[in-house]
Write a structure and sequence with these properties.
Distance between the termini: 23 Å
Largest sheet: 8 strands, mixed, barrel
Number of helices: 5
Structural class: alpha/beta
Helix content: 10-25%
Low-confidence stretches: 5-37
């Protein structure tokens, strides 16, 4: 995961709309009406199954790390005893994952779970149409964004099943930071995410969404206020401010995803050593249901 603050972060101030009830917005939510044209419009897709009730509600509050590749089990054992972490991000699927996953199997998950680890599964697929990431060249097609999101959800479910993570588990769509110059780009990300959520909900999995607080999260917050649905169940927002909390900020205001539905990546690419074992990780604070 990469967090870069876009140059046009002031665009986040343009996305406040009249609040409406939605999957990510509390019923009491209210917000001022914007005096400018919003970045995203409301999109509503049928959500036939509704938000799923997880078979295992693995509600976790505490520290988590994610590393580019699943660590050795011996390292996890040492870190479970010596580190502050109780949850680990794992890249279970996606055509644009940054690292190979030679260890990530159902047996690895089973043994790590037996040590007491909780999991944040991540899917790295298509990126924003306006993304400038050269290492992830495949992009969302705005004309087919919702269907592409559903297709990626099906791929993500196959990845979860291959490592033994059952229905009710969340999987986080990784949309890396993108420039905020083009509203059509933000709309494509929103439509893709709604299709992703629809696809996961239809087969009993929970939807998660990861992005920078200043790009993907800002656009999704605007979509929530506009009444778009179905919205992801949990947001994982990147802001490297060294604050181990889930209070949000910017466009992610207190009434959005307020019912223990947040993960905060607050520092990235740091080297840490516990029990003599060293990993390069991103640091996260979690207050959300994780995979079971």
């Amino acid at each position: 995961m990469r967090y870069l603050r876009p140059a046009a972060t002031a665009a986040a101030s343009l996305v406040l709309l009249l609040a409406t009830d939605g999957a990510g917005v509390s019923a009491e939510a209210t917000a001022p009406v914007a005096a400018v044209v919003p970045r995203v419009r409301a999109t509503v897709l049928p959500d036939r199954a509704g938000p799923p009730a997880p078979r295992i509600r693995d509600l976790y509050t505490g520290a988590a790390f994610d590393a580019c590749t699943a660590p050795p089990l011996d390292t996890l054992r040492l870190w479970r005893d010596a580190s502050p972490y109780g949850a680990v991000g794992i890249y279970t699927s996606g055509s644009q994952r940054g690292c190979a996953q030679p260890r990530l199997t159902a047996d690895w998950v089973r043994q790590a779970r037996g040590m007491g680890w909780h999991f944040l599964p991540v899917h790295v697929g298509l990126q924003a149409p306006c993304s400038d990431l050269k290492g992830k060249p495949r992009r969302i097609d705005p004309a087919r964004a919702a269907q592409q999101g559903r297709d990626e959800a099906a791929e993500a479910v196959r990845g979860l099943m291959s490592v033994g993570l059952g229905t009710g588990s969340p999987v986080f769509l990784d949309i890396e930071s993108y420039p905020m110059r083009d509203p059509a780009c933000g709309q494509a990300v929103v439509d893709f995410t709604l299709g992703w959520t629809q696809g996961l909900h239809a087969v009993g999995y929970r939807s998660g969404f990861y992005s920078s607080l200043d790009s993907g999260i800002a656009d999704l917050a605007a979509a929530a206020r506009a009444g778009s649905s179905p919205l992801p169940d949990t947001l994982w927002y990147a802001r490297w401010d060294d604050h181990a909390d889930t209070v949000g900020g910017g466009a992610l205001t207190p009434e959005l995803w307020a019912d223990r539905q947040r993960v905060h990546q607050y520092r990235g690419n740091v080297e840490e050593t516990y029990g003599g074992a060293t990993l390069t990780v991103d640091r996260n604070q979690v207050d959300a249901p994780l995979a079971g």
